[in-house]
Amino acid sequence: MSHLGDVPEASMDSTSVPPLAATAPRHPEKEHRPDNPVARKPAWIRVKAPNSPEYAETRRLVRQFGLSTVCEEAACPNIGECWKHKHATFMIMGDTCTRACAFCNVKTGLPGALNPHEPANVGEAVQRLGLAHVVITSVDRDDLDDGGAAHFAAVIAAIRAAAPATTIEILTPDFLRKQGAVETVVAARPDVFNHNLETVPRLYPTIRPGARYFASLQLLARVKEIDPAMFTKSGLMVGLGESESELRQVMDDLRSADVDFLTAGQYLQPTPKHASVERFMTPDEFNALAAAARAKGFLMVSASPLTRSSYHAGDDFARLRAARREKLDRAASR
Fold this sequence. Notes:
By secondary structure, the protein is α/β, with parallel strands linked by helices. It contains eleven helices and ten strands.
């Protein structure tokens, strides 16, 4: 999943859910936990409420095709800016995740069956929005034999058919213990394969308990083994209690997996039941983090308080391709 923010979620039409669903807890596994106070955000974190006509039109199309977006489900703080420019990250395979990460605002529980019409609906929505670049993510689907890999592949194929000029970035779950899943998705040939490590290995037991750090790292390495030309990308949240040396070690691990693009943004606590923000990094600290990452050899680095995995993804993809061309040109001229 992508990094999370704290914009209020859009309300659902009461006719679209069973009568009791509106009062059911969004995160039942967190109900027994004591509340963690939500820290006041510094001035550099504030964003404007979404109210542009373009935002309303994007929201209308998402509703028309019965789609979910991580922008809404994860309460991303950049939704107003991104949807104003018709940049949306579609979240496939439902709105309910089988994991229970301490940072994540996506609903948890037992998901429903996959919608066989979803790939075509996503393809048509991409075409109708006129997207030059699209990001597709999903909930974790540990209940499926392949973790949803074939569904990812079907969505990619549908977008290629409906909008051939659109470049496709995927942000996948870890496909933990799902043999052959990564191979299935890579064979569908997305332009960018993103999987977020999210945090440092020491914090996995409390922040990302259903995942395994080295399994996620191996997934990214495996993508490059299958297709060395495919762009790979990963993201981190900061402010969860990690140290600078731990962040630098994660950067080294990602470079050892030949990951091309690193994103880093401030963790924002969605509710009092989620993990606390231990500290807010300043913009200058993010600049220093980005400089350290570039020095380690990433082709692209995006690091700022409001950076999220899919924030400015289209523009960043263009820069990523340009950076690779420049690197290859330099190598050829030696």
